[in-house]
Amino acid sequence: MTTLGRRWVLAVAGVLTAILLLAMGAALRPLIPGSDAVGDRGITLSDAEIGFAQDMSTHHEQAVFMTQYLDKGSVDPVVALLAEQISANQIQEIGIMRGWLMLFDKPQTGQHPMAWMQQTTAHAMGHMASPAPAPPPMPGMASWDDLNRLHQLKGRDAEILFLQLMMRHHQGGIDMAHEAMPLLHSPVIKRITQGMINDQTQEFGYMGMLLQQRGAPMLPYP
C-alpha cells in the first residue's frame, strides 16, 4: 500500500472507530439483559458464532472503507446516497457483532480467518472422518489496488467501479451469512444474520440496476 493509502486508511479508521464506539454501546442493550445475566443464565457464543462475528466484522469494515474511498462529490447523487446508506448499515452491524464479542470477552479478530467454515464443510459431509480442507479466503474482498484505483477515479468511472466492487463484496457477504446460518444457535444472532442477508440482497439488486443503466458488467465472482 502506498503512503497516501496508509494515511487515508488511518484517517478513515479514526472516524470509523469513533462511530463504532457509539454503535457498540447501542448494540449491546437489545442482545443481553445485563452483563451479570451472561454467567447466571449460561449464555455463551459457539466457536462458529465467534468466528463468524469476527470475520463478518472485518468483511463489513472493508465495505465502509470502500464507501469512504468513493469521491461522492463527483458522482451521481443516487450513487452517493447509496454509499452512505451502505456505510450506515454496515457500521451498525459491525457495532452489533463487536458488541457480542466484547460482551463475551472474545477477541475482535480471529487468528485463523474463516476457520469456522470448516464446520459447515464437515456438516455437509455428514461428519465423515477425513481431514478438513483449509479455510477458504474471505469471499468478495477487494484488493488494495482496487481501492486505490477507486480513490483516484471520479464521475462515471468512479460510479461503475464502486458498484462493481460493492456488488462483488455483497455477494461474498451474503454467501458467508448463508454458510453461517446452520451453525448459529442464538435466535437473536440468527435473526440479525438473516437481516444482513435480506438487506444486502436488496442492495445487490439495486446496484445491479444502476450498473446496468451505465452499460457496465458485473465483476467475476468468486
Mean pLDDT: 84
Number of helical elements:
8
- Give the distance, in angstroms, between the N- and C-terminal Cα atoms: 23 Å
CATH topology: Ferritin
Percent range of helical residues:
55-70%
- The tally of beta strands, per DSSP, is 0
Query: What CATH architecture would you give?
Result: Up-down Bundle
Strand content: under 5%
Gyration radius, to the nearest Å?
Answer: 18 Å
User: Sheet with the most strands?
Assistant: none
CATH class: Mainly Alpha
Task: Report the uncertain regions.
Answer: 32-37, 122-129
In CATH, the homologous superfamily goes by the name Ferritin, core subunit, four-helix bundle
Order of helices and strands: HHHHHHHH
SSE layout and pairings?
Blueprint lengths: L2 H29 L3 H6 L6 H23 L7 H27 L13 H8 L19 H9 L2 H26 L6 H27 L9
How would you portray this structure in words?
Residues 49-208 form the DUF305 domain. It comes from Nocardia terpenica. This protein has 222 residues and is an all-alpha fold. It has one domain: Ferritin. It has helices at 3-31, 35-40, 47-69, 77-103, 117-124, 144-152, 155-180, 187-213. It starts with a helix and ends in a 9-residue tail after the last helix. The model is unreliable at 32-37 and 122-129 (pLDDT under 50).
Main attributes of the structure:
222 residues; mainly alpha; 70% helix
Structure in a nutshell:
Helix content is 70%, strand content 0%. It is mostly helical and 222 residues long. The longest helix is centred in the first third of the chain and has 29 residues, at 3-31.
